[in-house]
Amino acid sequence: MKTRAAIFRRVGEPLEILELDVREPAPHEVVVKMSAVGICGTDLHQLKGEWQRPTPMVLGHEGAGVVEWAGSAVTGLAVGDEVVLSWAPSCGACADCGRGRPAACVPLHRAIGAGTLVDGTTGLSLDGETVYRGTATGALAERVVVDAKVALPTHGAVPLREAALLGCAALTGVGAVLFAARATPDCSVVVLGAGGVGQFVVQGARIAGASTIIAVDPFEGRRTQALALGATHAVQPDELESCLADLLPEGADYVFDAVGDPSTSATALRFTHSGGTTVMVGLPATGLRLDLDPAEFLRREKWLTGTMYGSEDPAVALPILLEHVAAGRLDLASLVGPVYSLDNADEAIQASLAGVSGRVLVTP
Length: 364
Prior knowledge:
Elements: E1 2-8, E2 16-22, E3 29-38, H1 41-47, E4 57-58, E5 62-70, E6 82-85, H2 95-98, H3 106-114, E7 124-126, E8 129-130, E9 132-133, E10 143-147, E11 151-153, H4 160-181, E12 188-192, H5 196-208, E13 212-216, H6 220-229, E14 233-235, H7 240-247, E15 252-257, H8 262-270, E16 272-280, H9 295-298, E17 303-306, H10 314-326, E18 336-341, H11 345-353, E19 359-363
Parallel strand pairs: 4-9, 12-13, 12-15, 13-14, 15-16, 16-17, 18-19
Antiparallel strand pairs: 1-2, 1-4, 2-7, 3-5, 3-10, 3-19, 5-6, 6-11, 7-8
Helix pairs in contact: 4-5, 4-10, 5-6
């Protein structure tokens, strides 16, 4: 079996579109013909050299497609089913998977660092050389072979381009509010970073019933989009302090750092009021550290937590998000940004790095 895919080799070099050899799928696996793949911040960390992973590698993990083949041991999926890829299948053995948090699975994160699937293989090669998989998925390809647990059915509830966003950005952003913070009605929320994930944090806050939602981003287009999605205010980073002085002088109930830099995490903690909760959503570059003042926690009784992939089992969270979409509470369509073909995947990367509004998609 073969597939065309976008190959990342080194920082600063364009992606190559090449035909790879794919091992034959196992009985517990499915072949998914990809329809749309979102460019995530995780991919950009790798492309910018902020994370070190083995290469050559097929990036991409946020995607949707159609089941083209299903192994004899697969149940609940059939050829023709529309699915969202989840990069966090349960290994079924570790303590984190046992508590319903497969995104925290230690074997999974070892595999991500090694550029493999959870079983330690990649199933991809080029002229006999191993090709690695980004985020244990490698979705920037025409077809992917994955464990059936990775392919979550949508039952055709949303168009596949929109469904791709559910694979990571929506589960992460909405889940950060509903499942990690468990935000309460009439609360106040600040969202630092209104990119792909941040826009879904804004929507999660609206769904939770927040009365004040302040989106913070340097790009005007993203601020405008956040207002359309439910933010009550949208400001540039240097305007946040004065905005809070007028609206929330004691700070916000919940502050979400959707950027993932120590400076934004420190800002988030600073503007969380006493007894409030700071949630770290964005992933930092390797080696960065956060300098904390113990008084923030002792004297002001603040809470600081992290969230990975929305702090819920994707197989549980996805149907909940689809219910919100069906009810008109969760908007996917307006968050679909520029769309590029697989042959133009490198242009998609550059558009995402430039901070365009909406999720940049590649359609293999």
